[in-house]
Amino acid sequence: MPCTDGESVLECLLRHKIDISYSCKMGTCQTCLVRAENYDIPANAQFGLPKNLVIQNYFLACLLYPESNIDISASIPSDLFRFATVTNKKYLADDILQLFLEPVEKLQYYSGQFINLKSEYGIVRSYSLANTAENSDILELHIKRMRNGKMSNWIFDDLQVGDEIEYQGATGNCFYIEHNLEQPMLLIGTGTGLAPLLSIIRYAISRGHRGEIVLYHGTRHPPGLYQNDLLIELASTVENFTYHACLSGKNEFTGALHGRASDLALLKHKELTGWKVFLCGEPEMIKDAQQRSYLAGANLDEIHTDPYVLRDLRRRRRK
User: Fold this and answer.
1) pLDDT tens by residue, 225-278
2) What positions does the domain FAD-binding FR-type occupy (predicted)?
3) Are 198 and 110 within 8 A, CB to CB?
4) Of 47, 77, 107, which closes a domain?
5) Helix, strand, or coil (residue 32)
6) What DSSP state is assigned to residue 239?
7) CATH number of the domain that 191 lies in?
8) Measured in whole angstroms, how far is the alpha carbon of residue 103 from the centre of its chain?
9) pLDDT score for 313
10) 258 and 158 housed in the same domain
């Protein structure tokens, strides 16, 4: 099938109505993986892939713009997905579930990364890891029930403790590495965007991070502050950690600030030169906060983002 000028492999496949998993179209979610036969894949189309997939000539279809004929084949599930067992399910709020998985093989990951889960129907969604690899072999995920969400409803209603589930990853570029323990960190999250931030905070504290760690967690209504007690307790025991609960809707919650988390955070922190910034949650918030953090002095390389629009992974193109 012919590609038009400036068209990626993914765009070409979709235009020809070929069924392929995809989401972000920018190389982050890694769900559009396919394999090339006898083609020299440019490095950018394999960015972030594990070595075993690079060797097998896997690439991200959204990042490859072919300059000559290319033969491709679908990914082999066993190359990408592994199995984990559900060990526990716990409600953190009426619409937020804490899911615990025990992988068959221990998963190595950076705090702040995410994994892709696959349902028994082949639906794939991404969820951020909330715990740290060094403290447990169990994976902790925070999952919000979405209206008409096939994957989230399946996890809430059908997936049971003891069941096996397939997962892919971990992946993602929004993570913490302890190269400067004195560096102050500002973390802003909305909704279950708290999960990767919680992983980052837990790991930073465990590694003896000495710089200031400031978290703003925002939601519209009080039930969305689903880890409020845990974070208040953590702030009371860790001297350099500060937690701000933020409510943008009607504020009837003692101790919460009124307003959007990003607005409150960046109004308070007007000078971010030398800071590391983590932004997780609603994509519009992230785009705005990323620009404002840069204008406040944060280096672009020190602003790490995880927009949750990338979690809308679908097996088939929506009509």
Assistant:
1) 999 999 999 999 999 999 999 999 876 777 899 999 999 999 999 999 999 999
2) 79-177
3) no
4) 77
5) coil
6) T
7) 3.40.50.80
8) 18
9) 42
10) no
